[in-house]
Amino acid sequence: MRKIVVFIFLYFLLIKAFGQEKKEVKQLDSIQVRLERSLDSLLQNTPKELNVIVLKKLLNKLNPKPVKKPHIGWKSFGKFSFFFNQSAFNYDWQGGGTSNVAGNLALNYEINYKKNSLTWDNKILADYGLTFLKGENFARKTNDRLELNSRLGQRIAESYWNYSLFVNFRSQFAKGYSFSKDPDTDETIRTEETHFFSPAFLQIGPGLLWKKSDNLNINIAPVTSRMIFVDDQFTTTPDYVDGDYFGVDAGKSSRFEFGGSLAAYAKFPIIKNITMEQILNLYSNYIEDPYNIDIDYTLNINLIVNKYISGSFAFQAIYDDNATSGFQIREVLGLGLNYEF
């Protein structure tokens, strides 16, 4: 008897629920019909393009996009690239040229921290390239750079301005040579001029950072210390003159400078799949020739073909009268493979 009562109770409960659902469906259908009729009457006398704009705005209000929460904590990004090019000429080629093979490896790795108004941005840049010319015993470098950047920022109120402290280290991986010809044998002679940690540049200084985004920022550090490190084998040669090797005095292995620096960074899309990146670093030594400003400007244009293939163009101009009396110019154009991690 108890089972029959329970069964009857469940039966009536299901009937009631089904009837309620059916009633709600009828109400929705009725609302939909009234809404469609109202819209038809309102939109039939207005241009189609205007109707689309109005309806899109209305839908955005009714179904707003969720607000993306700012990332808190550590975040890292890495990109490894390999560029390769090759040229070949046979003996009958009349236009001139030397067969060669060249390759370039590049690493760009970022690890950043953000919490509330505090940011800590760290970047590692590494590039190394070689070219092999037919008929020569020595490979020649096309690129050689090791750079570490670290910058701590504390936002001021709700503005784009931050108190900042930056550290920058620059050096190279391998030996650098100057090349000449033996007048008797016409063979290539190479003379070592630089190697790892000779030179090496270390800069550190507090300042103000204007940061609109990760892709647009300027850091001004009016109080910056810079150390230049070299191997004293280059400053103890006969007839060495103070300052000839990256400004370092004879017999010394380092040089201290005190001045001001400015670092600007901008990255933006030109057209679809093509971005432009510009990096500018300025430094003035207050102790010696403050108006003789060191300049380091880099322009990178990147073309993304797909996830693994990209093209790039890099132009760099450096002016540092402690290294040489004129501008140092570097230009690299290549198509290569990418791996992001």
Would you mind describing this structure in some detail?
This protein is 17% helix and 53% strand. The chain has 341 residues and is of the alpha+beta class. The chain has a twelve-stranded antiparallel beta barrel with strand order 1-2-3-4-5-8-9-10-11-12-13-14. A hairpin with a 4-residue loop joins strand 12 and strand 13. The longest helix has 42 residues. The mean pLDDT is 86.
Summarize the topology.
Blueprint: H1 2-43, H2 48-62, E1 73-87, E2 100-115, E3 118-133, E4 140-155, E5 161-171, E6 176-181, E7 188-194, E8 200-213, E9 216-229, E10 254-271, E11 274-285, E12 294-304, E13 309-319, E14 327-340
Antiparallel strand pairs: 1-2, 1-14, 2-3, 3-4, 4-5, 5-8, 6-7, 8-9, 9-10, 10-11, 11-12, 12-13, 13-14
